[in-house]
Write a structure and sequence with these properties.
Helix content is 37%, strand content 14%. The chain contains eight helices and six strands. Strands 1, 2, 3, 4, 5 and 6 form a six-stranded mixed sheet that branches. Strand 2 and strand 3 form a beta hairpin. Helix 2 crosses helix 3. It is globular and about 55 Å long.
């Protein structure tokens, strides 16, 4: 909890940039960075500075070419971001930190319950034949992309996908569950809202996870003001946590895989701070 007593532990004013990794945070990430290739010249770029560059872009939302001069060149930071997206390094870092966060919360490594929800975000001005298409969310009146996230009951990100905003929640949610690929075999309960009700979503989930039970958390029609719904508030809070990263304020990326990589990087940033600043 954010109080005057523990404010000092969250102080990052002594860092060069508030987005830079502390020594404790880098100690968690360093063993997970793959070594340089054998043969040829030695790796000259400093990996900690590359990660700091990625965190700077994520936190501030700046263009790649606006990375400060005391960080590695934008070409180096961008190339490592692409490489770690393709070779699964970001996924491995995320999974390793997730396991540590579960241990810190005294939970089992594999969750038994999860909550799913989506967030529609506006797309930035972009176009051309070589970008992933966007869509129009008629309910939210947003033209852009939709981020579909699956979180556990602690609020930690389990899985996510990015797709056009015109795909209905029940179809996008089925795609999220279908692409889990057995990552969390202990899942037994899934909490959803009214957007996922109906036989189509239930049938799609039953095909990939036949033992998973779906519970719809309904909003009361008798209440006109905001009410915290059981379990539903957890995923909404996670979306709020991720939105602290300004790169996620809009859909700036031309490709869904890069948008997903930044979403995963935001989750890594959150888990690092959670592990190094326990409440």
């Amino acid at each position: 909890m954010w109080t005057s007593q523990n404010r000092g532990r969250y102080d990052r004013s002594k860092l060069r940039y508030p987005s830079d990794l502390t020594d404790d945070e880098w100690a968690l990430v360093k063993p997970l960075i793959p070594p340089g290739k054998t043969g040829g010249g030695k790796r000259r770029v400093i990996m900690r500075e590359v990660v700091n560059g990625l965190m700077y872009v994520l936190s501030t939302g700046c263009q790649w070419r606006a990375i400060p001069k005391d960080l590695p060149p934008k070409s180096s930071v961008h190339d490592y971001f692409d490489l770690w997206t393709y070779d699964g390094t970001l996924e491995r870092i995320h999974q390793a930190l997730y396991q540590q966060c579960r241990e810190q919360a005294q939970r089992k490594a594999s969750p038994t319950a999860a909550i799913i929800d989506s967030q529609s975000v506006k797309s930035a001005e972009k176009g051309g034949p070589r970008i992933d298409p966007h869509g129009y969310d008629a309910g939210k009146k947003i033209k852009g992309k939709k981020r579909h996230i699956l979180v556990d009951t602690v609020g930690l990100l389990l899985h996510a996908i990015v797709h056009p905003a015109d795909i209905q929640d029940r179809d996008g949610g089925a795609l999220v569950m279908a692409t889990l690929c057995g990552t969390f075999p202990s899942l037994k309960m899934l909490f959803v809202d009214d957007a996922y009700k109906g036989p189509k979503f239930a049938k799609a989930v039953a095909e990939v996870l036949p033992l998973l039970e779906i519970e719809i958390v309904k909003r009361s029609d008798l209440v006109s003001k905001f009410v915290v719904l059981p379990k539903r508030w957890i995923v909404e809070r996670t979306i709020g946590w991720l939105n602290r990263c300004r790169r996620l304020a809009k859909d700036w990326e031309c490709f869904n895989r890069k948008a997903l990589a930044f979403l995963r990087l935001a989750s890594i940033r959150f888990m690092l701070r959670k592990l190094c600043n326990p409440a």
